[in-house]
Amino acid sequence: MSPDRRHPAGFWLDTCGDDLTPRPPLPGDETVDVAIVGGGFTGLWTAYYLAKADPTLRIAVIEKEIAGWGASGRNGGWCSADLVSPPEALAARYGADAAVSMQHAMFETVLEIGRVCEAEGIDAHYVRGGTLKVATTSLEAERLHADLEASHRLGWTAEDRRWLEPEEARQRIDVRGLVGATYTPHCAAVHPARLARGLARVVEGLGAQIFERTAVRAIAPGRVRTEEGTVRAGVVVRGLEGETGSVRGHGRLLLAVHIHMGVTEPLPPAFFDAVGWRERETLSDVRPVFVYAQRTRDDRIAFGLGRGHPHPGWLTPTYIVPTAVRPLRATLARLFPWTRRARIDSLWSGYIGMSRDWFPSVGLRDGIAWAGGYFGDGVSTANLAGRTLTELITGRETELSHLPWVGHRWQPWEPQALAMAGVGGIFTALRWADAIEASTGRPSRVLGVLDRALPS
Ligand SMILES: Cc1cc2nc3c(=O)[nH]c(=O)nc-3n(C[C@H](O)[C@H](O)[C@H](O)COP(=O)(O)OP(=O)(O)OC[C@H]3O[C@@H](n4cnc5c(N)ncnc54)[C@H](O)[C@@H]3O)c2cc1C
Predict the structure, then answer these.
(1) CA 452 from centroid of its chain's CA atoms
(2) What is the pLDDT of residues 244-302, one digit of tens each?
(3) How far is the CA of 237 from the centre of ligand 1 (A)?
(4) For residue range 17-55, what is the model confidence (pLDDT) as tens digits?
(5) Pocket residues for ligand 1 (CB within 6 Å)?
(6) How far apart are CA 239 and CA 45, in angstroms?
(7) What is the dihedral of CA 400, 405, 406, 407, to 10 degrees?
(8) pTM score > 0.85 for this model?
(9) Are strands 368-372 and 361-365 parallel, antiparallel or unpaired?
């Protein structure tokens, strides 16, 4: 799809086993019941559940590139129960009961994705091995204990998340310098592009149309305008996440953040004999600039770094920023020094959507539905969004329609230059905090300042 080394499709799309030749674009004006803008997980899950709920609905997915080309086909493959807003933040804003309901809906979502893959024959390499979050200093261990206590205060049980002493943690994954870890079973590793592309095929099989290479310029109640024609629809769904700003008038809802990932060559059996990682748990540490990783089905490590850059509109989100590459390469070695010798087979980048208050949202108002603001936690959340939007659109409500994120109103961002400066400052401060903690072993004051300054 993309032979340009500066704009690679990335490992996942390259290995998804699907034909990436674009489907035909919108042929001209169309009329449907539901027009879905964006062919990522949000759009595709919405199309899937709508088509299942009412097979008579005429559904069109309109995608600028190809289905799965955005973050959905280029992420870390953590299908987790995490939300961008942690349970304490949800509880502070919406009350403890609402936070617990949301958390349980997310636990269930991780299972639901596995069920659909099974039922629809999507081989997304789904394995529910849980997540290991590791500490390699006493400071990180304190941070993990604090997280654990906070989640237990909100009703998580020891089954949902527990502390592992170093020996037990090492039996799962032997990370260098491990002093403890937490483990939760509520996460699966997936091959994200296999999931996105497989889902697109299932959606088509259910009768929905997918138009690719069709960029939407404007949306309004009942109407989607593209260069190729106008789609009239009873409901318009906006599922553009990091590229929400590409549609006129929606630019200040979500800020695009640009992040990079890489994948090693397949590692030899001796590496996994030494390290373990038998259950394909997803893995991260808890430094201010954290590493996240998964063991792929073919024994590579796919990994990324919790640092990004606000994304200026003029830069293509798939562009590899040269200065991002070295820290990414260095980062895996801090957990597994042996990987310094490993070849990096693919590096790529993508974009995520950040709301002003760091809350995700889903809703339907005046004929326009939306979902997004997942930040780095959209793989599962987009499935919950798809089911929720289906309820809102068909009017068949369950408890999903009453979760706290439904109808949540985002405060608009400041004008782009200001928003980018602010978010850029946050990422720079996190990098400083990371460097200070690494050299002193003590918490950086920068984090305290950020904690007070950021929305919670
Ligand atoms: C490097 C990286 C790592 C990540 N890791 C994880 C992880 O491990 N776990 C996790 O939960 N989340 C992760 N995320 C976030 C997750 O991938 C996203 O939250 C999720 O995929 C968002 O899905 P979406 O459908 O809302 O958006 P997208 O997948 O971005 O889909 C939006 C689609 O809209 C299309 N589009 C854009 N503009 C237009 C337009 N004008 N007209 C028509 N179509 C348009 C795009 O081409 C794209 O296909 C990561 C993201 C990245 C980039």
Answers:
(1) 25
(2) 988 988 888 999 998 999 999 999 999 999 999 999 999 999 988 889 999 999 999 99
(3) 15
(4) 999 999 999 999 999 999 999 999 999 999 999 999 999
(5) 37-43, 62-65, 69-72, 74-78, 80, 215-216, 239-243, 246-247, 259, 261, 304, 350-352, 372, 374, 376-380, 382
(6) 10
(7) 170
(8) yes
(9) antiparallel
